[in-house]
Amino acid sequence: MPHIYLSAIPFSPRGIGVSEQYLGLYPRIFGIQRGGQSRWPAIQSIFSGHTLFVTSVAFSPDGRRIASGSLDKSVRVWDAETGETVLGPLGGHTNFVNSVSFSPDGRRIVSGSRDQSVRVWDADTGQITLGPLEGHTGGVNSVSFSPDGRRVVSGSEDLSVRVWDAETGQTAVGPLEGHTATVNSVSFSPDGRRIVSGSSDGSVRVWDTEAGRTVLGLLEGHTDWVRSVSFSPDGRRIVSGSDDTSVRVWDAETGEAVLEPLRGHTDYVYSVSFSQDGRRIVSGSRDNSVRVWDADTGQIALGPLEGHTDDVNSVSFSPDGRRIVSGSDDKSIRVWDTETDQTAVGPSHGHNDWVRSVSFSPDGRHIVSGSDDRSVRIWDAETGESVLGPLEGHTGSVNSVAFSPDCRRIVSGSSDKSVRVWDAEMGQTVVGPLEGHIAPVSSVSFSPDGRRIVSGSDDCLVRVWDAETGQTVVGPLGGHTAPVTSVFFSPDGQRIVSGSFDESVRVWDAETGQTVVGPLEGHTALVNSVSFSPDGRRIVSGSGDGSIRVWDAETGQTVLGPLKGHTDWIRSVSFSPDGQRILSGSHDQSIRVWDAKTGEALVGPLVRPSGVFAASFSPDGRRIVTGSSDTSIPVWDTEVTPSIVRSFIDHDAGTVAYHTDLGACLFNLSK
Questions:
Q1: Contacts of 125 (CB under 8 A, 6+ apart)
Q2: DSSP letter string, 334-388
Q3: CA dihedral sign, ordered 548, 553, 556, 557
């Protein structure tokens, strides 16, 4: 007999059968006051590993694995359930891998590359079993096995299509010529007797695989490049996607369009494919979204599925039709559940350019963010809703933001060389612009009593301002020989720490402006971020050399580090409120948490789809907020298996998540 766990019901989507049946029967059970979902989310998994754009993805015939190809020249094989890399990276190609596909028995993978070659790999061992197959005189854009696995078809920038013997590697048919521009996509019919090709000449052609001649074409209707083509499982229809932003469905016998153009994408359609039952079509687009269409009516059946932060280059259904895999220029692979019928809940209002700085309010109720879109925004830290903003006035990127200790004001520093103080309730500028720096302001911070503001600038100087009058009260402090990247007051307000492009850290007397410690040297590249520990006895610094160092704030000696793990510039470092942990965010797209005494990695890497510019603990140390170039502002729970609990994204798409005992639940927001 099945068991219903009543404690789990409030956390389940309201629109599913279990919730609808049992919530009304138990009115006294605790409930969710705000947030929650109506349906299970579409996104299931995100796979990260490729170091450049993911160009092609494909499920294995049994649905248990996913193959991917990338501009990083490699092929990878993933576990479709766990997202673990099970094979690869497979190296051999000397240029971008543009296309990958499994053989019908799942034992081989074929790949096509811009290096003009085709290779066949053993899907279990990763060894090359055939190739490189050479003959094309331009990059290979698309490859696919025949239904019997005995042949491989390829389409190329040399305007031709070739058919290869999958055992010997010899050219079996071709080159098939007729297209007048690059061949972007090729695919066999289910019976293996025909090949469909799509080209930058805007046309679709159908070829006889035995005779090597065109049997149907030109299929014309698209007004721009045809990026992707595929047969339906019964071989009676062909789907095509184009740079004209439309999807078209054709009769494979007559070449007539059987549906009006399917419209909804707002940019190039890069990939299209039928589901195994032929009833749905999936499309991926340069507009960063995935859509699912009813193949009989042309209506949108699901989507847009949003989450990718860059072009979606490749999409494919799983064999059972219940999942979709997508690969993107954001370097990630996502797996979506196709059986959810709702993917968007709530509003989305946010930054539309890189988020440079984020910080919690001292009471933990709000988050402030600054962006390259020149605005400041304030968010509810629990719901993810925008509560104030955009605060506008700066004429350049907002590089740094921080709350005052009483939560009533916000300070911002900008590439327009100015500092502004804003009312955190009304959003009005109350002090400033504070002018004096002669180059972009990279970092700002309030003193612990809220009466002063410190700023660091690309003019190599540090300034201290009166937070009420806007007058310079100390400085400019000179000593750094290169741009100042980061400044921060000590907890007692008596000292200021600064980091610089000159690879050093300095500690200043906040009253006199004199250097009291430093320069602290040890980093071998610019110092991007510095911060005091809560007791003021230590300083943490993060550098372009990929390392973190902890210094004694009195003696200037290194007491811990260098801590290594990041593989690129460290953009942000800070102590947890209890001083026991250190948080770091890096251009390597990851966030890490370290033990502040031992240097041991405690959490991470937590991977983002783009470089992390800012990271900060909440006042209680239980959450982390980050800002990055993908315009999103995710909030992470540090006390469970790390998971996103909120994410505030751009005007086009947003993501919110909440963590319960049921796991990390994600759902998307759209306008």
A1: 87
A2: EEEETT-S--B-S-----SS-EEEEEE-TTSSEEEEEETTSEEEEEETTT--EEE
A3: negative
Residue 207 CB neighbours (<10 A): 26
pLDDT of residue 340: 53
DSSP string, 593-610: EEETTT--EEEEEEE-SS
User: What DSSP string describes 236-274?
Assistant: SEEEEEETTS-EEEEETTT--B-SPPB---SS-EEEEEE
Fold match flag (43-337 vs 355-669) = yes
Alpha-carbon distance of 311 to 591, in angstroms, equals 24
Half-sphere exposure of 32 (CA within 13 A, CB side): 20
Give residue limits of the domains in the chain: 1-33, 43-337, 355-669
Domain 355-669 has CATH 2.40.50.100: no
pTM of the model: 0.49
The predicted structure's pLDDT at residue 652: 32
519-541 mean pLDDT: 92
Please provide the distance, in angstroms rounded to a whole number, between the alpha carbons at the two ends of the chain.
Answer: 43
Query: Averaged over 119-132, what is the pLDDT?
Result: 93
CA–CA distances in Å: residue 486 to residues 199, 424, 662: 51, 23, 40
Which CATH number is associated with domain 43-337? 2.130.10.10
What's the rounded Cα separation, in Å, for the pair 411 and 256?
A: 62
**Residue 585 — left, alpha, or beta (φ > 0 → left; ψ -120 to 50 → alpha)?**
beta
Structure tokens at 615: 């990271």
pLDDT digits (tens, 9 = 90+) for 98-117: 999 999 999 999 999 999 99
Tokens for 365? 């109720």
Give 292 or 628, the one with higher predicted confidence.
292
Identify any residues that bridge with 281 across adjacent strands, giving them in sequence order: 274, 293
